[in-house]
Amino acid sequence: MKEEFDSAADQLKKAAANAGEYDASSITALEGLEAVRKRPGMYIGSTDTKGLHHLVWEVVDNAIDEHLAGHCTHIWVTIHPDNSITVRDNGRGIPTGMHPKLKKSALEVVMTVLHAGGKFDKDSYKVSGGLHGVGVSCVNALSIHLRAEVHRDGKKFEQEYKQGKPQYDVREIGDTDDRGTIVNFLPDPEIFETDEYKFDILAHRLRELSFLNKGLHLDLVDEREKDNGEFKSIHYYSEGGLEEFVVWLDEAKTRLIEKPIYITTVEEGVDVEVALLYNTSYSENVISFVNNISTRDGGTHVSGFRRALTREFKKYGDDNGFFKKVTFAISGEDFMEGLTAIVSVKVPEPQFKGQTKGELGNSEVLGIVSRSVGDALKVFLEENPNHARRIIEKVVLAATARNAARKAREMVQRKGALTGGGLPGKLADCASRNPEDSELFLVEGDSAGGTAKQGRDRHSQAILPLRGKILNVEKALEHKIYENEEIKNMFTALGVSVGEDEDGHRILVTDKLRYHKIVIMCDADIDGSHITTLILTFFFRYMRELIEKGHIYIAQPPLYLVKKGKNQRYCWNDKERKAAQFEFSGGREDDDSVKVQRYKGLGEMNAEQLWETTMDPKFRILKQATIDDAAEADRMFAMLMGDEVPPRRAFIEANAKYARIDV
Predict the structure, then answer these.
(1) Pairing between strand 28-29 and 116-117?
(2) Is 511 a catalytic residue?
(3) Which of 123, 483, 527, 576 is catalytic?
(4) Catalytic residue among 58, 243, 523, 632
(5) Does pLDDT of 102 surpass 50?
(6) Reduced DSSP (H G I as helix, E B as strand, rest coil) percent helix, strand, coil of the chain, to 5
(7) Protein fold of 415-546
(8) Rounded Cα distance, 89 and 207, in Å
(9) 560: which strand partners?
(10) I need a surface site. Which of 39, 48, 209, 487 has the fewest CB within 10 A?
(11) This prediction's pTM
(12) Comparing C-alpha atoms, which of 142, 187, 194 is closest to residue 163?
C-alpha cells in the first residue's frame, strides 16, 4: 500500500511540473478493484434500486467535473430498452495515452483501477464531486458489459469490458471533429436486486444538477417508452442557477419577499453560493450541497449558514426595536420558520464523514460560509428595509407560535398524552413489549379498525383506528397540532414525545418508541389516498426521524377479487386481474361465470380476508416510506397539501393520464 501512495505522490509532482495539462500523466492510480464485486454495498451504498441508480450518478459526476473545470456544456443520458445506460458528454475526453507508471492506456486505468482519475490532480480539476475516485471503475466492475468511447485529439478510441475486465487493448476506431466521452453499461443482474431504471428518479437528479450548474444542458431520453411517436425525453437548462432552484422549490408556497436573496463569494479557494426565500408556511427547508453532492446531514457549511442568518437577523431586530415587546427569548429556530434555502459550496479538498458523503466535516468552511453569508445579509437588510421588516415580523410570529406550542405540549404532557402516561382508549395493543417485534396499524375508520382488531395477530400487531381525516398539518399552527385528538392518540400510542435542544430547536424523543413498524392502512379509493397523504404529511413534518429510520410503511390492500366457482384470486393491479380472468375463463372474453369484485374499502373485507391479504406477514405487500430527495419531498407535500391551487392543478393535469378514477 505504501508503495502505491508513493507512486501517486510521484505522479502528482510530475503533473505539477506540467501545470494546466490534462494528459495520461494526470491520471493517478491508488488501488485495485478486487473487492468491489464481493462487497458492492461498501462502494455504492446498496444493491437495491438506489444502488442501481447510483451507477448512473457516478458516470454523470465525471462529466459534471468536466463542466466545473470549464470544458463541458452538454450531457446526454439515455435509457435503452434492455435497461442499459449511455452517458455522453462533450468534455475533453478521458486521456488515452500510455500511463507512465502502469504502462497501459490511461483510459484503461480510469476504468479498471480503484482510486484512479484526474480528480486527484488539482491542475486537472480544481474541485470534484467523486473525490474518493471509486466511481466509474465501480460501475465497470458491477456491469455485465461496459463500453467506453473517447473522442479526443481528432480521433475515436474505444475499449470494452466484461465485469470490469478489458476485452482488448484501447484501440483507435476512426476520425472525428467531436470531443468527449461516451460510456455505455449494463448492470450485472447477479449483483442488483432490480434491473429497472426509473425515469422519474433520473429526471429529478438531472433537474437538480441543472440548477446547481447553470449554463449546463442536460438531456434524458427513455427508449423504453414513446410519447406521440417519439421517445420519452426531457431537457434541463438553468440560466439562473440557485435563484431559479429556490423559486422552483417554493412554487407551491406564498412568498414573503419578492425575489430570492442570492449570495455568491469566493474565499480561500472555496466557492460559496446561497439562495434563500421566506414564505408564509410553518416549515423549514434547507438543502445543502458540496461539489454538487447532496449533503443530507448538513455539515460545517450549513452550520455556518445558520449561524450567520441567526446572528444578522437578530442584530437587525434588536437594533431596530422589533423585539421590544417580546416577553420570551427568540431562538435560532424562529429565524428558520418559513425559510427555503440552498447552500452550495465548492471545496478543493472536501472531508466527508463516511463514504456516503452525507455530511461535510471541513472546519474552515464554517467560518468562510458564516462570513460570506453574514456580510451579504447585512447589505440586504440595509438596502431592503421593507423586506427586512416582513421577515422579522414573521420571526416574531414564529417565536410566539413556538412559545404557544411549548405550552400546549407541556399541557398535554402533564396529562400523559405525549409521554405514554396512558394509552388511548381506542388502541388495541399487542401482547409483545419488544418494539422490534411489534407493529402498529393506523387504520382509517372505526369499522375497518374493528375488522382489523378481529383479524390481527394479537401477539405482535396493535390497531389504532383513526376517525376520518386527520388535521392537515401543512396549514395548521404547531400548538393546534398538539391539541388535535387523533394526533395526540398517535403520539401516545407510539410512545414518542417532543422536546427542544439547547438551541431551542424542536426534537423528537424516540427512545421509548413502542413499535418499529408503523403501518398506514387506508381504503384503496380517493378518500383513502387523501388520508394516507395527510398522515404522511404529519410524519414528514413532525416525525421525520421515523421515516428516515425506516419505521413507516403503507399497506397495500388488494384492488380485486376474481372468482369462478371455488377458485378465487386476489389481485393488486389491472395486469394481475386480467391474467386471473384469462386463466379462469380459459381465454374466453365472454365467460360470465368469472366474477370480479372491486374493493373500494377495507370494510368490504371480513376479518379473515383482511388478514390473509393485507396483514399476514407471509403474504402481505407493504410499501416502505423513504426520503430519497428531501427537496422534492418538501415541494410535493407543500404542493399537495398547501394553499396554492395553480401548482396543484398543474400537477394533476400533468399526471391525470396515469390515474384511475372510479365513477
Answers:
(1) antiparallel
(2) no
(3) 527
(4) 523
(5) yes
(6) 40, 25, 40
(7) Rossmann fold (3.40.50)
(8) 16
(9) 571, 598
(10) 39
(11) 0.76
(12) 142
d(CA 344, CA 209): 12
Give the dihedral sign, CA 324/328/334/337: negative
CA distance linking residue 244 with residue 222, whole number of Å: 26
For the question of residue 525 being annotated catalytic, the response is yes
Catalytic residue, from 153, 244, 525, 583: name it.
525
**Residue 567: helix, strand or coil by DSSP?**
strand
Question: 245: which residues sit within 8 A by CB, 6+ positions away?
Answer: 208, 211, 212, 238, 275, 342
Report the C-alpha gap between 272 and 269 in whole angstroms.
10
Q: Are 455 and 463 in contact (CB under 8 A)?
A: no
Mean of pLDDT over the chain: 86
Gyration radius (Cα) of the chain, Å: 28
Look at residue 538 in the predicted model and tell me its pLDDT: 93
Confirm whether 227 is a catalytic residue.
no
Q: How far apart are CA 267 and CA 248, in angstroms?
A: 28
Determine the topology of domain 2-236 in CATH. Heat Shock Protein 90 (3.30.565)
* pLDDT of 126 higher than 70: no
* Spatial CA neighbour of 35 closest among 137, 108, 130, 110: 137
Comparing 19 with 453, the larger pLDDT belongs to: 453
Tens of pLDDT, residue by residue over 379-394, are 999 999 999 999 999 9
Which residues is 597 bridged to in the sheet? 561
Question: How far apart are the C-alpha atoms of 56 and 84, rounded to whole Å?
Answer: 10
What is the per-residue pLDDT across 253-274, written as a single tens digit (0 to 9) for each? 899 998 999 999 999 999 999 9
Which class does domain 242-398 fall in?
alpha beta
Is 369 in contact with 301 (CB distance < 8 Å)?
A: yes
Q: Tell me how crowded residue 603 is: count the other CB atoms within 10 A of its CB.
A: 17
Backbone dihedral region of 434: left (phi > 0), alpha (psi from -120 to 50 degrees) or beta?
Answer: beta
Spatial neighbors of 275 by CB under 8 A, at least 6 apart, are: 241, 242, 243, 245, 246, 260, 261, 262, 263, 341, 342
Residue-level pLDDT at 601: 83
Say which residue the cell 425525453 belongs to: 233
Same fold across 2-236 and 242-398? no
DSSP E strands: which ranges in 302-453? 339-346, 439-444
* Rounded Cα–Cα distance for residues 612 and 451 (Å): 13
DSSP string, 133-181: --HHHHHHHTEEEEEEEEEETTEEEEEEEETTEESS--EEEEE-S--EE
- Torsion 136-141-145-147 (CA) sign: positive
Domain boundaries, the chain: 2-236, 242-398, 415-546
User: How open is the CA angle 289-243-647, to the nearest 5 degrees?
Assistant: 100
The cell numbers describing 94, all together, are 478521458
Question: What length is written for the chain?
Answer: 663
Is-catalytic flag, 608?
A: no
pLDDT at 13: 42
Helix (H) or strand (E) holding 540: helix 526-542
CB 474 within 8 A of CB 642: yes
